[in-house]
């Protein structure tokens, strides 16, 4: 008997080989149960060489089969959370497991603090270590920084936190920044706060943008306001081009483009308009567009007998009945 047969006889595989079960997931349209494939003992003998290895092999295989069966059991099935008062539902097993752990603490391994009188617990060992380090300090000799002011119980693990507490609460060791204006008593704890005060109140340290037009004394803190001033006061556009104002009496219209000024003069003041008059006796109709005149002749009751040429009509004209 070969070594493989002896090993099989020892495990009872020669007479009753243990099959390997492999689940093949069915197609979406199939309704038959999963097929079961068998792997013979010769394959097992080739894959494993010791009793311990075979035991581990079959243990991993059973776990894989159980996991596959569990996935198949959950497949396309919406299940509700069994906890009382919980309306959560899902069709994915891992989602349900995560939900139960997060919301109900089911399946969570808690790490409890072993210090007397401490009820702290954490889901992660690292968080428990941090808790012990900063709350109980078991790994180092930690010294609190205590506030020495009478009646103050403040303490800090960091020295700069204690200094900040003394400056803000007790006004100790505060370096004041005084305003440089002789008539101002303002002072600040930081240089940035003082700089902001001087800029907003005294205009110190601000770069002004001055208007260069003639004797204009306008100045601004930003380029935007300077451009706005030039546009409104000196008719200078953002690109430096002179605006085009309307020359009609009592008209304050102005624009940066000559084409827009032309449209304004035509539409508002009737300047530069080519009028198209109706040539029918007794009709005073006139229009700025030729196609409007053609539409007038076609629709007007007094011109119904006149021939109408549609050569220059637009699609809009034809649609109008």
UniProtKB/TrEMBL annotation:
<dbReference type="GO" id="GO:0006357">
    <property type="term" value="P:regulation of transcription by RNA polymerase II"/>
</dbReference>
<feature type="domain" description="C2H2-type">
    <location>
        <begin position="177"/>
        <end position="203"/>
    </location>
</feature>
<dbReference type="GO" id="GO:0005634">
    <property type="term" value="C:nucleus"/>
</dbReference>
<keyword id="KW-0479">Metal-binding</keyword>
<dbReference type="GO" id="GO:0008270">
    <property type="term" value="F:zinc ion binding"/>
</dbReference>
<dbReference type="InterPro" id="IPR013087">
    <property type="entry name" value="Znf_C2H2_type"/>
</dbReference>
<keyword id="KW-0863">Zinc-finger</keyword>
<keyword id="KW-0539">Nucleus</keyword>
<dbReference type="InterPro" id="IPR051061">
    <property type="entry name" value="Zinc_finger_trans_reg"/>
</dbReference>
<keyword id="KW-0804">Transcription</keyword>
<protein>
    <recommendedName>
        <fullName>C2H2-type domain-containing protein</fullName>
    </recommendedName>
</protein>
<keyword id="KW-0805">Transcription regulation</keyword>
<keyword id="KW-0862">Zinc</keyword>
């Amino acid at each position: 008997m070969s070594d493989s047969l002896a090993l099989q006889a020892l495990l009872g595989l020669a007479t009753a080989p243990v099959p390997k079960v492999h689940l093949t997931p069915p197609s979406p349209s199939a309704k038959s149960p999963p097929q079961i494939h068998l792997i013979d003992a010769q394959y097992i003998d080739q894959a494993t060489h010791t009793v311990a290895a075979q035991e581990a092999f079959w243990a991993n295989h059973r776990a894989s089969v159980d996991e596959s069966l569990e996935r198949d059991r959950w497949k396309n099935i919406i299940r509700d959370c069994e906890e009382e008062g919980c309306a959560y539902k899902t069709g994915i097993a891992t989602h349900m497991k995560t939900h139960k752990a997060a919301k109900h603490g089911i399946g969570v391994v808690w790490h409890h603090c072993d210090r007397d009188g401490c009820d702290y617990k954490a889901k992660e060992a690292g968080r428990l270590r941090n808790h012990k380090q900063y709350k109980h300090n078991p790994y180092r000799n930690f010294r609190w920084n205590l506030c020495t002011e009478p009646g103050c119980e403040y303490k800090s693990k960091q020295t700069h936190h204690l200094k900040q507490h003394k400056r803000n609460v007790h006004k100790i060791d505060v370096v004041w920044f005084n305003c440089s204006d002789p008539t101002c008593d303002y002072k600040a704890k930081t240089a940035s706060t003082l700089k902001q005060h001087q800029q907003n109140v005294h205009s110190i340290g601000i770069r002004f943008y001055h208007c260069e037009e003639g004797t204009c004394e306008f100045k601004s803190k930003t380029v935007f306001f300077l451009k706005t001033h030039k546009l409104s006061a000196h008719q200078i556009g953002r690109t430096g081009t002179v605006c085009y104002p309307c020359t009609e009496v009592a008209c304050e219209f102005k624009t940066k483009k000559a084409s827009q000024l032309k449209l304004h003069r035509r539409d508002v003041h009737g300047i530069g308009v080519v009028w198209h008059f109706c040539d029918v006796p007794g009709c005073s109709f006139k229009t700025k567009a030729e196609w409007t005149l053609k539409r007038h002749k076609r629709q007007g009751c007094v011109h119904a007998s006149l021939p109408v040429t549609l050569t220059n009509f637009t699609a809009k004209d034809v649609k109008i009945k």
